């Protein structure tokens, strides 16, 4: 499902315009992103938990040349599904 499809579904379900629905979807995504940037977890009951994980610096290889390169440390978003979602998928 794309963001556009989510906006259209929200608009149809709650008799909102697509503009209003897009603002709601953007607001939710912005708040989730802002909390992750701060290093906070975002838990949505019945759906799952978003968190930030740290990746250590490491060495890798350039697949084209085989040359060893250094990969800098970074942070990444992580998602862990809730039990209800896991059960629904299986």
Automatic annotation (TrEMBL):
The keyword tRNA-binding does not apply. PROSITE patterns: HISTONE_LIKE. It comes from the Bacteria. Keywords: DNA condensation, DNA-binding. GO terms for molecular function: DNA binding; structural constituent of chromatin. GO terms for biological process: chromosome condensation. The keyword Mitochondrion does not apply. Belongs to the bacterial histone-like protein family. This is DNA-binding protein HU-beta. It comes from Spiroplasma syrphidicola EA-1.
